[in-house]
Each structure stands twice: as C-alpha cells, then as structure tokens.
Amino acid sequence: MASRCSFHVPTGALICLALMTSPPAPAQEVVAPHRHHALSLVEPPRFGPDFKHFDWVNPDAPKGGVVRQWEEGSFDSLNPFSIQGESAAGIGLIYDSLMVGSPDEPSAEYGLVAEWVSFPPDYSSVTFGLREGARFHDGRPITPEDVIFSFEALKKANPQIAQYYRNVVGGKKTGGREVTFTFDAKGNRELPQIMGQLQVLPRHFWEGKTATGEARDVSKSTLEIPLGSGPYRVKEVDRGRSITYERVADWWAKDLPVSKGQWNFDILRYEYYRERTAAFEGFKSGAIDYWEENSAKAWATDYNFPAVKRGQVKLERIPVKRVAPMQAFGFNLRRPQFQDVRVRRAFNLAFNFEAINEQLLYSEYTRTASYFENSELKATGLPKGTELEILKEVEKEVPPEVFSKEYRNSVGGPDAEHRRNLAEAARLLREAGWSLQGPLLRNARGETLRAEFLLNSPTFERHTLRYIDDLKKLGIDASVRIVDSAQYQRRRRSFDYDITTMGFAQSESPGNEQRFFWGSAAADQEGSRNAIGIKNPAVDKLIDRIIFAKDRPELVAATRALDRVLLWNYYVVPLWYYPYERLAYWNKFGRPAKLPAQTSSFERVWWFDKTAADKLAASGSQ
Predict the structure, then answer these.
(1) How much of the chain is in helix, strand and coil states, percent to nearest 5?
(2) In this structure, which topology does domain 2-61+95-206 adopt according to CATH?
(3) Domain 327-415+484-577 is in which class?
(4) pTM of the full structure
(5) pLDDT tens digit string along 404-433?
(6) 7, 20, 167, 280: least CB-packed within 10 angstroms?
C-alpha cells in the first residue's frame, strides 16, 4: 500500500533565532524519498524488489501457437486513445506502461518501463526512473521525452484521460532517465500509482508523417499500423473483419520478473462476427479456439455438441475474487422524463429480478445491491463513524433515507409480492404527475411516459422484454431497439438513448476514475463514462473525499458514503453479478495450477500445448 511503504521523511530545515554568541545550527541532510519497485493502495505488494517471477505463472511456459478469438461487431481504427471510431480488439497489447498491474492483487502495480518510482510524503509529485534497455519495436529507446509527450498528447486527445489526470500539472525531465510529474493538490495518495498506468507512446512516430505525407494525430482514428513497445505488434489487418497480432520475440521486457511466463502465444487473432450465433457456430466447428460465456442460458443448453462429449472441448468455471461491477439498466438523466427520482424508483420497483433469475437465468445470479458489490467498500446498515461524519457534510443535498434506512432492492418473485411493488410504483408515478389516460401514462402537458431500451445485441433482449411487460402494466410506453455495434457506440457517445445497459467496473481502491463515472464535469463531455448524466454537487464532494482520503479507513468510509448516495438517487436499475468466469476452449492449451485471483488471464498466462494440439489434430477435430 502506498501509504504503508517505507520511506524517509525529510525533517526539514530548522530556523533558529539565537544569540550572536551561539554557534550556528548544523545543516541537516536531506534524504531522498525511497525508490519503490511496486505500489499498492490496499495491501503491501506481495512480491519484494528481488522477486524472480509471480507465483501465478509458469516461468518456463512454452512459447508458440495460434489463438483465434471472436469479437462482436466491427472496427475502423487502430488508435485506442481517440474517441473517434471503434478501435480494434487487443490493440492495447502493443503498448507498455510505466508500471503493470498484478491480476492477483487488488490495486498493486509493479515497475515495467519504470524501474522505480518515488514521491514525497505530501504526494505533491511523483518521479519515475526509466529502465535501461526499455525500447520501442523499432529499436529506439524509451526516453523521458516520450513519457512527457504521451501524457500531454493523451490528455489533449481524450476527455476521459484528461479528467483522470485532472490534478496533474505536467511532466518534466529531471535526470538522464528520470521524469517527474507535479500535481496541483497535495494528499492524493492515488496519483503516483495512476501515473504509473500511463501507456508510453513513441514521440518520434506520432510527430512524424504517414506514408502519404499526412501529419499523424493521436486524437484521430486511423488504420495505419502504430508503433509500440509491448509484447505484441500488429501483423495483419482486415478492416472490420479481423486483426492479427504476433508476439515480439525480442521484446525488451520478456526476461523481467514482471513478464516471465507471460504472453506466451505466438499469434493472437480476433475474428469479428455480426452476432453471437454465427460466432458460436464458428467455435463449435473449430474456427474459434476460446470462448468466454456470459449467458447462463447458453451455458446450460448450448454445450452439448459432440466435441464437448468427446472431451475435445473443455468447460471450466473459474472463481474470481474482485469487486463485482454495477451492471444495470441506466437512465439518461438528460431526458426530462427521468429527472424525477420518484419515476426512477418506480422503474426499480417494476423490475422483478427473482422471476427473471428463476425463469430465464437458471437461478445462477445474485442481485447487485451496491456500486462496490462483493467488497468492503459496499455500504451496509446505517451510516456511522467516519462515514456518518462525511455524509453530514452533504446532508442538505442528499435524500433523507441516506441517514434513516438501509438501501435494499425491491424483492419480487411470487405474484403477491410483485403486485405490491407495482402498486407502489403506480403510486409514485401519480405523485410525480403522471396519470393514466387510456392505456398510457401522460403528464399535465399531455406528454407520454416513454422509455426506449437501447441494446447492441439480441443476447439481452429476452430479459429486457420481460421487464418491459411489467412497465407496460403501469402504462409506460416502453420498447426495445437493437442496433449494430457501430451505431450503438455512436449513440452512446452522443448520449442518444433513454435507457441502456451500463457497466461500472470498480477496483478495491477507487479514486480519480470516479470523476468520469459520476462527476458533473464529465456529464456533458461527449464520449465520457458519465453515461447517466449525473450533475450532483453532493456526489462531486464525495468523489473528492475519496480522492483525497488520507488513509485506507477514510477511503473506505468515503466510498461507502458515495455508494449510499448513488443508490438512494436511483440512477440505475441494478441487475446481477456472477462470481465466476465460464470458459470453453478446444483442448490444446495449458495453464498454471494457480491462476490469478481476479481473472483467468487467458492471453497473459496460458500457453499453447503442442502435444495436446497434435493429438486433437490427429483426431480429425480441427
């Protein structure tokens, strides 16, 4: 944990007003801040500076083989940093960052391009020492100038990145291989670590010109193959249809302890399909090698084909221990019909999770009841202690239930309970000024209460239609619209929807990213993650309390306070979560006996098993 890492605190100069006959005070030695090999905001990093490799890898994993995966939709850009276009799957694999996360530790990062990191006790800046030998794929070294360029260019190109690094004033070269970033506020414990997440771009490439003589621009979409420094490079592109990456055999970081046993596949190929059914037929025929299943129905009914019965396709449910994301139907508060909290609460009451879980989801899921579900950050009971003190600061700006009731999702299920929920929803809608005029609810201006659910895949359609049936019972003119991936992204970026599915992934140590999830400044930024459109002064204040929390207990208290305020404002209709990854794959891969706790990390730590692949090929299956 960053706040627990050991470093020397300079005592500062003591200025003494003494008698002229007194000897001068001796100058005190200024001790440089400790150089950390890793940072963590939750627990101390598990691996010390002399570790040889992570214990969730096979350090001797063989290299080789091809993996074919699938993606839905299409792509038209190889620039993941621009808000323009749809970037290709896996493109981030070509870039290295200053530090790299550990999927076995919550919020831990270890030095990659940066050999070490240091910061003063007040967290007013951070310095990175770049590793000797770090280089781009063209052989040129990664320099402080590249790091500074990356920060400035990405912050200018992408409003989400600009919001993430809002408190970072800028970077400066402070040594031959050192770069220092200064901050405009002190006490933000997370800033040194999130600066370590900075992906490093080659300045000489982006300041150059294309083969046609055009100036390159990080803010624009492009299909020109970019230069990177990571474990893979782009090998082949078929626009909108497929992209292929090849492992960089002489990757500069391949022998570092943070990289050993990882990125073992020679070729990673992503095939694009318009929809799941065609892709799954490709998997069954052997055209796709690996499948992560997110549908309980499909998992229960689709995996009875011959290759599974013969053991040629393996099925696994791998447990994951991480903060469950808030998956939900999210309201667009930019639409006038959703600005009244009573309307949003009525929509919540109409959602019958228990019936949907039993009848459509094979009772496999748990209802999400927090934006930080499955973690200590979740608000429970009534607020007390530091959390209560924090909430008192915004008492006049939050719903009174925040202090008097524990938030609980409505419980449906049997008809009697669900009818009571619908009756309460109808009462709230009347109170909010909506009355039945014929079969539909209208307000005093004669406007109909409409809600179009925007989806980008038929996979979620049957759950949505079940929900819509209950909304129509209340007189709401609800409908669903399914659009292709490109149109969906355009509408999401321009906030052109009433309600859509939203997912908010969280870490064990929330911080600056909360600003672009819920912050007022992000609400009107096209392409921002504030898809709901929240502009709430209380939420903004609570976000700052999280960002500038002085220690872990205060961070937990402030996060619980934010969770409670978000829940009682009914910004979303919470859906469900599942604490496993469902994997299906053709039997030609190996993996470590111990996988990282927070993800199966298929691309990162699995490998191609040539013996098993040859046996599979001999059977005539592939």
Answers:
(1) 30, 20, 50
(2) D-Maltodextrin-Binding Protein; domain 2 (3.40.190)
(3) alpha beta
(4) 0.85
(5) 999 999 999 888 899 999 999 999 999 999
(6) 20
